[in-house]
Amino acid sequence: MLLSTLVFGVVLGGTYALVALGLTIQYGVARIMNLSFGEVVMFGAFATFVLFTGASLSPVLGLFVVVPLAFAISWILYTVLMRPLVKRARHPERVEIDSILVTFGLLFLFQGLFTQAFGSGYTGYGWLQAPVEILGARVASGRVLGLGLACLIGLGLWAATTRTRWGLTMRAVATRPAFAALVGIDENRVARQAFALGGAIAGAGGAILSMYQPVTPIDGGFLTMKALVIVIMGGIGNMGGALAAGLIIGIVEALVSYAVDPGLTLAATYAIFLAVLLWRPKGLFA
Amino acid sequence: MFEARSISVRYGKHLALDDVSLEVGTSECVAILGANGAGKSSLLRGLTQAGLRERGGVIRHRGEDISATNDFDLVEKGIALVPEGRGVFAELTVDDNLSLGAHPKRARESASERRAEVLDLFPKLGQRLAQTVGTMSGGEQQMVAVARALMSRPTLLLLDEPSLGLAPIVVDEMFAALHKVRDSGVSILIVEQNVRASLALAARGYVLEAGRIVGRGSSAELVADPMVAKAFLGH
Ligand SMILES: Nc1ncnc2c1ncn2[C@@H]1O[C@H](COP(=O)(O)OP(=O)(O)OP(=O)(O)O)[C@@H](O)[C@H]1O
Ligand SMILES: [Mg+2]
Domains in chain B: how many in total? Predict the structure, then answer.
């Protein structure tokens, strides 16, 4: 039982790490603290549910619909809501404060829409529940697939940011936005791309999450908080750090809910977060 | 080839650059001389940032009006700037900085030839490709900044005090490299307080004082000009 709890934790942690990668790309490159980030994750989960129950589309194939949609939604959010904030701000800090306020409002707008459409209870679908055996633990095959997909997407992102010209422009804007123009990079364009890409990753994370557990409309806010905790623990912009921190949070949550009380998982997450802030304020690996 | 008319830059109420006009010919090197606060950096900003310029300024490069061109599109038009403070990507490696220099479309195809050329110009960088630029000395960082600008295959190079804060021997090294760049046919507009070195590089120059051009002439004339000698050469 302990072993299967650990495996659950790794699967959950893998999804968290993926979601946190999306947030760190949005924050690190576009410099927007998006408190409605978790709502895009929820959009991914609900959209996958609708496609599966309404159109019998397999959640894996659903990714090919959900991810582009999440990309488009985030692209529009950036263009319509964020760009004006960036444009009118005299200092980068101003953008951060304004974007926190605007996205905090968005959070409630999205939550209201989700509750309206799906009710406040659990929304989920049964899929790939046949167990497979891993290290002697019996785990639903949907979970294993979810972990595999999260790893695949994370690996692809890592390769894209470290190995391609596109990734290099992202790193240039993330570290020295003021100098991007010197090498012909349109900072605004890259920021918009990064914001949309972060949203696409959020959508993928939501789709994956829905493959192995039901969701409720208020989960988005908690996911944003967890993603924030993971990003800060791992170090802003540190992809390997986000992976490690995501796994730690996932495993601790699974262990606490198995050995102590499911109601205490969030408290445990924040206890770890506080410890990290006190002991390593710049992240575990700084 | 490059021509700027009536460029003014204002910070709030303070007019830092007042109606400045200048031109740079093909393969020509021109120096802007001026003391601290004369408006040298403001001039380069005014030439490269359309948003900072007062209305009425006109800039043409190679027959094209680029007055309204965005700063990030200027590199694509062949104008590369090495700003005050270098503007390098300090957290990235020398190699990454050079690759970013070749980011503009005009430079992508010839990137490997350019890389060989700039490493030939600054051999030190060749052994440091994997080093993070922020950990390098000031002189080395300045070399990265100039090398990165050259990676974009510029027709005009704008330099803001490339010798600032460098040891004399490194200044010599930098100017030796700039002589080679000039001889390769790239036009240069250099802003400097190091009058001797910049007039040795340039064919002619302008003297900037309190945001206005107060003198101009060939390098020989400027070196001999008592006003320049008094203000900048210290005799
Ligand atoms: N961002 C700014 N806001 C307000 N005033 C500024 C700003 N930048 C420059 N100035 C002022 O404009 C004038 C010209 O400054 P500028 O930096 O162009 O001079 P400079 O010739 O480059 O000087 P230095 O040799 O010290 O680099 C100075 O009086 C300076 O105080
Ligand atoms: Mg200056």
Answer: 2
